[in-house]
Write a structure and sequence with these properties.
The chain is an alpha+beta fold. Helices cover 53% and strands 8% of the residues. The protein contains eight helices and four strands, in the order H-H-H-H-H-H-E-E-E-H-E-H. Strands 2-1-3-4 form a four-stranded mixed β-sheet. Strand 1 and strand 2 form a beta hairpin. Helix 1 packs antiparallel against helix 3. It is globular, with a radius of gyration of 17 Å.
């Protein structure tokens, strides 16, 4: 995988290009409102960590306004993350994160909202190995599904064996794990971001705990 900060900036511009030249109502402006809020939270985390908190909800009246405003905020957030000291812990809703991990979280939001935009436009999204950061973040946050339902996560890690768009295989977790998830990395990213159901994807789940985890993801 390429540098996460480079991929974050590349995917930012790709989403702006995807939305460019289209007319859109609330179905298209809403993803950019969400992304703008996230970008402002990132900037607050990097610039004023003591004031970190929830930002006001945002709404737009036109797609052009939504994209331009988001792009300004996102580029600022991207630059702040890229220039932050590597080991600095930045406040975030799930607990302090290093800048590179927060960049992966931002890429996950871009992936999810970008899929929403593509679906609204009825156009396919061309994915590359930048989604590896999204897959990584999905693996890293496995336990969130349990905690949302006030459940204790399994003590043992899962094994994730995911095929990148380039054909490279990405492995996460112990090789000898009983609970395993295998298949295309893009499908995994669509699943963990809640953009598709497992029945519509080419993922294979092995082991009781992965079945439980999948059920929690799709509730």
């Amino acid at each position: 995988m390429a540098d996460v900060f480079t991929d974050l900036q590349t995917e930012t511009e790709a989403l702006a290009d995807l939305a460019g030249g289209h007319d859109g109502g609330p179905g298209l402006t809403a993803p950019f409102a969400r992304l703008t809020s996230t970008a402002r939270l990132i900037a607050l985390s990097a610039e004023k960590p003591d004031a970190f908190g929830v930002t006001p909800q945002i709404s737009y009246t036109s797609l052009d306004e939504a994209v331009v405003t988001w792009l300004i905020e996102q580029r600022k957030a991207n630059a702040l993350l890229a220039s932050a000291p590597a080991e600095l812990l930045l406040p975030w809703s799930d607990g302090p994160l290093r800048p590179s991990v927060l960049a992966a979280a931002a890429l996950t939001e871009l992936f999810a909202c970008g899929q929403d935009v593509a679906d609204a436009l009825g156009v396919p999204v061309r994915r590359d190995d930048a989604i590896g950061h999204v897959a990584y973040y999905g693996v890293r946050t496995r336990d969130h599904a349990y905690r949302r339902h006030q459940l204790t996560p399994p003590a043992k890690l899962f094994r994730f064996e995911l095929a990148a768009p380039s054909g490279t295989r990405w492995n996460f977790g112990p090789a000898g794990a009983t609970d395993r998830v295998t298949g295309p990395a893009e499908d995994f990213c669509l699943l963990v971001t809640g953009r598709r159901f497992a029945e519509d994807l080419s993922l294979v789940f092995s082991g009781r705990h992965t079945a439980d985890w999948l059920e929690l993801l799709e509730r």
